[in-house]
TrEMBL record:
One of its GO terms (molecular function) is 2 iron, 2 sulfur cluster binding. InterPro entries: 2Fe-2S-bd, 2Fe-2S-bd_dom_sf, 2Fe-2S_ferredoxin-like_sf, 2Fe-2S_ferredoxin-type, 2Fe2S_fd_BS, Beta-grasp_dom_sf, Diverse_Oxidoreductases. The keyword DNA-binding does not apply. This is Isoquinoline 1-oxidoreductase. Keywords: 2Fe-2S, Iron, Iron-sulfur, Metal-binding, Oxidoreductase. The lineage of its organism: Bacteria, Pseudomonadati, Pseudomonadota, Alphaproteobacteria, Rhodospirillales. Gene3D superfamilies: 3.10.20.30, [2Fe-2S]-binding domain (1.10.150.120). Pfam families: Fer2, Fer2_2.
Amino acid sequence: MKYQLKINGEIRSVDVEPGTPLLWVLRDELGLTGTKFGCGVAYCGACTVHIDGYPSRSCQTFIEDAVDSEITTIEGATDRVAKAVQAAWREKDVVQCGWCQSGQVMSAIGLLTENPKPSDEEIKEYMYGNACRCVTYLRINEAVKLASRKLEA
């Protein structure tokens, strides 16, 4: 079945079966491989994208549920908040293996968009559910705080 999606500000057409997870549409049909497959059950957060401005797990979002929505992937995360988060990630040298990082970054962007000055507890609570196999949680927390300070400047 044909679907039209607005992804990273551009209308894209795909022909896939109903019930296809958005993750596989992004990766296999559109070549947007920055969004990663981790667990397939919305537990690990590696597949996080923004749907209508909110972090969402693309592995459990079906194609038909994404129609008429604004979808942003890591490739399209280019606003002021995204740039601050990405710069903080580099500065704090967060990435080790990198598998979870696009999901972590997309969640951090969502957090700082909603709450530009989160406490440590708010960061921990918001980022909960984003698993990191390399256990870089302390650097992730520090990077979110640094991004927050960058946004204040």
